[in-house]
Amino acid sequence: MPVSPDEYRLMDVQQGGCCFYCGEPVGAKATFDHLIPLAYGGLDAAPNVVLAHRRCNQRKADRLPTPEEIDRFVTQRRRSQLGVWPPLLALRDAEPGDEWITVARAIAGL
Ligand SMILES: [Zn+2]
């Protein structure tokens, strides 16, 4: 379980009870989506996780989040103890075409 019950409640409040991707109410059927996918070394903890419908989570699959999505995430997490995983900030500022290498370097701490 990457997210504690307290963290889950905080996420639900910050997202206004809605799915991160489609903005529709998500309720008790929320799934945990990793903004930077696990397959690419994404952190399995709250600073890299949002609540999403199962279908929206599956649709996102293993793509990286867009700069708009990262900005929205950062705004939701402002003044929150849940935090933002630093590689997401590096990705937001990546040059177009350099997204993957930027993420890999940020995760490696280079
Ligand atoms: Zn959704």
TrEMBL record:
Residue ranges of every copy of the HNH nuclease domain listed in the record: 7-58
Alphabetized Pfam families for the sequence: HNH (PF01844)
Molecular function (Gene Ontology), one example: endonuclease activity
Keyword Hydrolase included in the entry's annotation: yes
Keywords recorded for this protein, A-Z: Endonuclease, Hydrolase, Nuclease
Top-level taxon of the source organism: Bacteria
Full protein name: HNH endonuclease
